[in-house]
Amino acid sequence: MIHRPLRALLSGLLAAVALAGGGVVAGGGQVARAAAACAADATAPGHRGRPSGDPVPVRRADGRVEQFQLFYDDPAPGSYLPFVWHRAQQEPGGAYGEWERVSATPVGPKLYQVTAIENALGRMEVFFPSLGVFCHTAEGAGTDGWGPTEGFGLAPSPYHGGIVVFREAGGRLDAFASAGGTDAMQTRTQDPATGRWGPVAGLGALPDPFAGLSQPSSVAQLPDGRLHLVVREWNRDRFWQVTERAHLESWEPWQLCADSRCA
For this UniProt entry, which residues form the secretion signal (predicted)? Predict the structure, then answer.
């Protein structure tokens, strides 16, 4: 007999495996499939227990620091996985407010990376892995709290890193994650005026068909506005670089670097 908590965890893992087995297609279909896997854990009581890992600090444009931290529920829910919690300074350098849970969607297993950033509208956005896919939520307007947790569409394979989010000079956000198949890396770009994320787009394949990438080691914006990425292979100390051919339009071919600086 399988006990209820273990059965809930196995069901979630099987759902993640089924999602991965269906393949990935750039665009809305990929985002729709990922969304189904970011469901809340109905067995989680929402009581903050012991912490997991270190807090992730994010400095807002006004100087206030907000912290994001993984905590296990007490008592533990059926997934036995932690959840993302958040607290914010009331003023720059001031005291922090109370912890609040960002989402009832569990984080992990295998990867527990939490990425948070302030968008051009002044709202915090959070990205985290859950049962094989990456999930996303954002603050609502004013005092609306956190919005629904949904699949983000970017889905790097296990041990290939997480999502890296880069803020351009004008405030636009770009998210990057490794991929497989016809693209070595995929990206989504946010409209800074509305906060809406565009469709998943690919950066092309590597010249070496046997190589795979981790998450970007660095993302930089050139003086002409184009983006430039340096990425390490996920399983060996070799680096690749790629540059936009035209900003927000297309990318040049991947190039193998002589060293980690890609000088």
Answer: 1-20
Type of residue numbered 181? G
Domains of the chain: 4-256 (2.120.10)
SS3 of the chain: CCCHHHHHHHHHHHHHHHHHHCCCCCCHHHHHHHHCCCCCCCCCCCCEEEEEEEEEEEECCCCCEEEEEEEEECCCCCCCCCEEEEEEECCCCCCECCCEECCCCCCECCCCCCEEEECCCCCEEEEEEECCEEEEEEECCCCCCECCCEECCCCCCCCCCCCEEEECCCCCEEEEEECCCCCCEEEEEECCCCCCECCCEECCCCCCCCCCEEEEEEEEECCCCCEEEEEEECCCCCEEEEEEEECCCEECCCEECCCCCCC
pTM, two decimal places:
0.85
pLDDT digits 0-9 by tens, 162-196: 999 999 999 999 999 999 889 999 999 999 999 99
